[in-house]
Every structure is written in C-alpha cells, then in structure tokens.
Amino acid sequence: MAGRGSLPEGSLFLGFDSSTQSLKATVLNNELAIVASEIVNFDSELPHYKTEGGVYRDSTDDGHIFSPTIMWVEALELLLEKLKPKINFSKVVAVSGSGQQHGSVYWKKGSQAVLSSLDPSKSLSPQLKDAFSTTNSPIWMDSSTTKQCRELENAVGGALELAKLTGSRAYERFTGPQIRKIYQTEPNVYEDTERISLVSSFMASILVGSYASIDETDGAGMNLMDINQRTWSKTVLEATAPGLEAKLGNLAPAYSAAGRIATYFVERFQFDKNCLVIQWSGDNPNSLAGLTLNTPGDLAISLGTSDTVFGITAEAKPSLEGHVFPNPVEPDGYMVMLCYKNGSLTREDVRNRCAEKSWDVFNNYLEKTPPLNGGKLGFYYKDHEILPPLPGRCIGICSIGAPCIYKDSKPETKRFVHAVGFHRYMVENLDDASSDNLIERELSEFDPPSEVCEKMYL
What we know:
With 458 residues, this protein is α+β, with helices and mostly antiparallel strands. It folds into 3 domains: 4-285, Nucleotidyltransferase, domain 5, CATH 3.30.420; 293-340; 344-457, no CATH class. 32% of the residues lie in helices and 23% in strands. The protein is built from 18 helices and 23 strands.
C-alpha cells in the first residue's frame, strides 16, 4: 500500500462503528491486522438510559423512534477507557468511523464554543449534556414523517422527480423529512439550533473539537443533496425549512480529512497532536468501502439491525425504490442500495419466541430443517417496513398463540395488525423449475424449526 512504509514504526489506526445498539472500536497496525477491539452495548452497559435495542419508542406517536443523544457521547468515552489498557493512543496516526445512517443531532446555539473548549480534566458527557436544542435524536427506524415526505415530493414535482434530484424518493427515516417535522412541530427547537449533524459527522465533531462537515455519501441519505452536483439542493432546502443551509454547513468528500484530533483527547488520552481524524461516513457506504467493492455489478449483503443489499454502479439512475449514493471511495462513481428495516431485532424476536431465547437452539433448528424449508415461507414485520412499505407490530396475542411485544386496547387495531404482523405460507412444487405451477396456501402456524429457518431465508 502506497505510503504505508513512511509511517512511524508501530503506527496504529483506530476505527469506530456507531450503530443502533452499540458503539464498537477496532484497532489496526501497519500491516492492517487487528490488534485490539472493544464494544459498548447501550442497553447493558449504559442501563440508566433505559433503552431497548438502543432506542426509545414513543407510545403516543406511532412510528416515532429515537435515541438519547448524550448516550452516544458517554459511550465514546467509556469505549476509549476500555481501550486504554490495550493500546498506546500516542501511536494512533488516524481515526475514522461509521455511523448509523439518517440519524440527526441538533446542536444548540453557542455549542461550537463549548465543543472547542472542553476541559480534559472532566468527562465528556457532563460538559456536553446541555449542548443540544433537543435531547433526543431521530434515527433511521423512525417512520413518523409520512406527511413531511409527501410535502417534499410535491414541492419538486413528485416522488420520481425527488429521486432524480436527490437519489431517493422521500423516505420517512431520511433526515430531510425529520428536520421538517421538527421545524413544524417544535419551531423553538429548530430556531435554537446552530448546526445539524448526522450521527457520522456528530462523532467526528467531538473528535476534532469543532463542527465536522457532513460527507457527500452520508449526506445523500437526507433527501437534501443534489446527487449529481454533490451540493445541497436549494429547491429541497427551501421546501424543508427556512435557513437550513446555514445549519447544515458545507459538504465534504467521504475520504477527506476532518481535521486533527482535539486537544481534549491529546491531554486526557495521550493521543498524538498530529493524529488525523478522517471524515466519518454512513455504516452502509463504509461497509461497501471495507469490502472493496470496486466493479459495477459487485454486490454485497449486510445483515444487521437493518438488512441491506448494496453494490457499485457507474451511473446514477434513481428510481422509486432503493437509493443511489455517491461512491465513498470513487469520486465519479455511485453506490446503489436496498434497505429492509426488519433485520436482527426481528430475527431475535423469532429466536426468543421459538428457540428458547438461545442462538444455540436457533442454530440447532436450522440444522434440522431441509433446504427450501419444505415450501414454508414467512413474512415478519415487527416494525413498519421500508421495502415494501408496510405497517408492522404484532399486538396482543397472535393467531399462533404467542405473546407479542406490543399491547393495544383497541380491538380494531388488534385485528388490523394481526393481518400484517406475521404471515406464513406453504408453497407447493417449490422445487419446480417454473413458477407457473406453484400453489400457495396460508398456514396458521409453523413448527419452531421451520419458523427459525424461514426467517433466516428471508
């Protein structure tokens, strides 16, 4: 690798992953071998926030899902403390990271001054706890902004026109609709906001002690950026909220440097003052970069809190489904992606109900089940699904007799949600080479091994 030999002996590279349920760190040496790693699980290691899966669910606003912003700050410092015995921070020559996409942070007016003058003798979270105009950050799981999505689409001539302009039609989890909702429902919060960061640029901002730019790739997941020009679209900005461009700041390439690490980390953790902080980006774009996808047609599948399929393309051809983002490492290229919300949390729900809350039992069921699962297929929507756009949540007692996660006293809601929460089908002649002869019929229940297996197939 060019330039690697010119680095000081023993140089280290520190990478973070700020995800929905945890904050992780991985340290590489000069040979790009892993020398240390650590993780902070939000639910178990920061229990005072009382999150479930790293999030809060608003019982009064269907689909409103968010996380406490300051929890991410406390997690960063705890993670660095856990790494202290394992590595010499002064050997770290560069730091970067990935953040869950679409989540947003709202810095209060005057917070730039706070961020640039952190006291290294004190912990981070007490110094930053009052730095936000709202204490909660909307995240990618939120689906409460359908009204705002339609408003943005209408402002530019429809969903397809918005997709052509920004790379995606309006999606509830995207940051633009989230910002518009805050502007409409909490105008005082919006007015008091000095800077809006994504999760990725938020974490980079803490590390450099100043507002870091949103990078072009993660910025494409906001419905606010012109996908071809890689600049903020004034048309969409004006349709979202007044004065928004000043609150977003400038965009930057995903591979550029955000700055040198802040004095706070030099003095508190003994980082070298010349340590570079490289722009953070979204978790999916960084996965694409880390897997070294580099040829149009290359595809990868990521199974996480959400499940995604992404790949490389030379041209931006947005449609009404899926997303187009700038390629994070190839300046003239693009990446395409499909995202499914009901990923690991829904799999864990099936494990808990059907496999004694044990992955060992879960795996044993998988081994017992033949390929194609005897024609049994199932569709599970614990949360409102992104693709296809369907409501979720199984409420009360399902038709299979298993207790569900959410309770609701409204009979009409219970009847409706049972219809969309879980569906199970038997498909006959699944081995047939042609789909013409397939016969499907709905079933009321599966045996546990089949239930586990079909969820893994999906």
